[in-house]
Amino acid sequence: MRLLGIKNFLLSLSSFCFFLQASAQLPPVFSATQKEKIAKDEISRYYIAPQRIVWTNDSTQGIVTNAQLLLQKGTGQPYFGAQAVCKFINKKGYAGLVLDFGKQIHGGLQITTSQSNRVTRKVRIRFGESVSETMSDVIGDGTTGLEGGATNHHAMRDFIATLPGYGTLEIGNSGFRFARIDLVEADSVLALKEVRAVLKIRDLPYLGSFRCSDERLNQIWLTGAYTVQLNMQDYLWDGIKRDRMVWLGDMHPEIMTISNVFGYNDIVPKSLDFVRDHTPLPNWMNGISAYSMWWVIIQHDWYMFHGRLDYLKQQKAYLLPLLDLFMSKVDAAGKENIYDKSFRFLDWPSSENKGGVHAGLQALMVMTFEKAAVLCDALNETTKAKTCREMVTKMKRYVPDANGSKQAASLMALAGIIPAAKANADVISVGGAKNFSTFFGYYMLQAQAKAGDYETALNNIRSYWGGMLDMGATTFWEDFNLEEAANAGRIDEVVPAGKKDFHRDCGAYCYIGLRRSLCHGWASGPTPWLTENVLGIKVLSPGCKVIKIEPHLGDLGFAEGSFPTPYGVVKVKHTKSADGKIKTEVQAPKEIKITRAEEKTL
């Protein structure tokens, strides 16, 4: 099934959702003591019928009949009486099929048996983010997956379940688009009335929007938004299959996406505080010094978007000593010197480039002190703000070599250590999207925007993130390499003979083979980038009280969209005339001051 508009996909499911009213309460049979230990689920549920049958086993083995019946809408309710059913019949072998639910989702399966099944039956269920994953076996003990095979790490995706006789079972809690079901008992028959996916998602309105003259970019914007929405579960996760964890650095592209699409959401401070409270100083968040830097940067950006000074004040007791810790890691020459037990890390593809990692950490620390100075001003910590700015000046005097690292060069450009145009020309733009990464690709795009190279950035989005769509992606991935994708089969098909199995056979570091997550929030960077740079919406003061509108359409004929603020939605529309000039229309709440760049030919 080819990619459909993700917003339309979600809207099409709305008729199945029942909303709990704000006034709803637990029944009075629960005591006050019991209520204190009960938490209300913030996640909505939708039931999704399969979109197509991808595969059934060879009929010389087990037999599957009437599989197309499973594509019907369904109710989840068994009933007594004659009915057409899908049958799995094990004779010489074992019957099984693979279902495609059309979009990557987070959740499980609801399986309803028919009256023909008066006894329980055992089935093997395999969830897959790709068809290939549903065809795989768990490697080793099933926990690490570092051998490159499938894994039950973080979430069960391969297991045996017992179906009730003449009833319904809901089972599973993972990220998947495809599901394989096999009847595992010899000489047995299973009659299925229905199989539906259970989508668990925060039911959020898309307050932000983006539409332009290039449909590929429109789909990329929506895909990034949906990728992050799926990861907004109990906390803000990095991945819904593997890496269902709160990683501070990985969160930055996610909170930028949330702020540009959904506006304020409590899951962000909840997740920030979770890691803070589990990281007593002088420890580094997630064991990575850079991730404590990202915590400061996120606090700044979240404050700028949402203006929650009350929340920022709650961070003061942790923020100030953390800044002292950072300052203790800078030598007399202004060079970062974090050689303790922390993991020196930017992202995985750059991790073996020690010179590049050092240059990136130097830049990230400069960015941290710059943003911390703004926070300290807001907290009336003027002395600390002054010290932070002095550290920025001191550290900018030391200019390390990016060592060919696009990650490091991008951060150095954004930190103002080297001119953005030079970083772009010498390193970032070399080879197009070659050596991009799904996480740090966001900062590469931001550095190219700072260099004024918007058309190259747009082309990188089209080729790199668009390359995932070309392979059947409906969410963006933990890792993607354009060269590895050459001559690879799509993830939504059984890999044809002569084609590379991209999900199974590629990957490195912690995402080897099928362990790789195909829904990773850190890969959503193009969504906020397109809003900020093409729509040209830049927040200049806390709480969006001042917003600058400066569009950069590149080769686009028009772009329009919306942006959520604490006071309501800002709407913009940019249209390019035949002479190249841009006509801009803006609607904004009265509380927001809009500044505009002068009209110019782009």
Automatic annotation (TrEMBL):
Residues 1-24 form the signal peptide. SUPFAM superfamilies: Six-hairpin glycosidases. Pfam families: Bac_rhamnosid6H, Bac_rhamnosid_C. It comes from the Bacteria. GO terms for biological process: carbohydrate metabolic process. This is Bacterial alpha-L-rhamnosidase. Residues 536-592 form the Alpha-L-rhamnosidase C-terminal domain. Residues 207-533 form the Alpha-L-rhamnosidase six-hairpin glycosidase domain.
